[in-house]
Amino acid sequence: HLADGVQVVYSTSPLVVIMADLGKVDPASIKAASEAVAASRAALEALRAARDANTAPKRPSEGELRALDASIKKNTALAKKLRALSEDNTAALIDECGKTNQAKYVTEVVTAIAEATLKPSDVPAAVRLCSFLHQRYADFAEALGPALTRSFTTVGKPAGTAEEERAFSRRRRGTLRLAGEAAVAGVTTAPGAGGVQQLAAMLQELATIKWAKDKDGFAGALALAATLAKSPVREALLGLPPVPPSPAMLQ
C-alpha cells in the first residue's frame, strides 16, 4: 500500500519488508528498517538450520563419549558455568561441553540452563547450546521442557524481597523466550519432549492472572507474553504476521 509517500510491501514468509523511497523518507530510516529485516531474516534462517539438524541429530557413539572427561568435579564445574550462560560465553561453553561427557549428568545440565537468567540477546546463543546438547544426548530434550516449566512457574513459590521478585521476573522472561525458540528450533519438539505443551502450560499460567484481582500481576503477565510476539516464535508457533516497520520508520 501507499502511506505518506512510501510504498510498503509486506511478505509473510520469510519476514521481508521492501521500502521504496519516494522522496519523503529519511535514508537513515530505510537503512534502520533494512537492518532490522536482515536481522530478523538471519534469526529465522538460523532457527531453520538448527531445526533441520535437531530433527535428525547425528549423535556421538558411546565409545566416543567414554573417551571424554566424565568426572563429577568437571561436570559440577561445568554446571556452575551454565548457570551464568550468556551470549558472550556460549562459544566457550559449547567447546567445553564437546570435551566433556555429560551422559550421567543431563539432569544437572538441564537444571543449570533452566536456572540461567537470560537477556533477550542471550536467547539465540542459549538455543545454539541446547541444540548442541540435544544432538549429543537423546534424553536432553525430554528433560529440558519440564525444567524450563519449573523455572518459570510461580505455583508454590514463596514471596521474596522486591529485588528477588525483580530477578525472578527477569529470569521468567528469558525462560519463556528460550522455551519458545527451543521449540521452533526443533529441540523440544522431538518425540516425547513435549516442548509445545510445556510452552502452552507457561502461557496458561499467565492467563490465570485476572485484572480485577491483581492489576500489577496482570500487567506483568502481558509483558511476559509479549516477549514471544517479539521473537521468531511469533510466526513459527503463534501464526502471527511479521512485525511491520515502526511508525517512525514511515515518517
TrEMBL record:
Q: Where is the MIF4G domain?
A: 73-182
List, alphabetically, the Gene3D superfamilies matched: 1.25.40.180
A GO CC annotation recorded here is: exon-exon junction complex
Out of the domains of life, which is the source? Eukaryota
- A Pfam short name: MIF4G
InterPro entries listed in its UniProt record: ARM-type_fold, MIF4G-like_typ-3, Nmd2/UPF2
User: Example GO biological process term?
Assistant: nuclear-transcribed mRNA catabolic process, nonsense-mediated decay
GO MF annotations for this entry? RNA binding
From the Swiss-Prot or TrEMBL record, give the protein name.
MIF4G domain-containing protein
- Which organism's genome codes for this protein? Chlamydomonas leiostraca
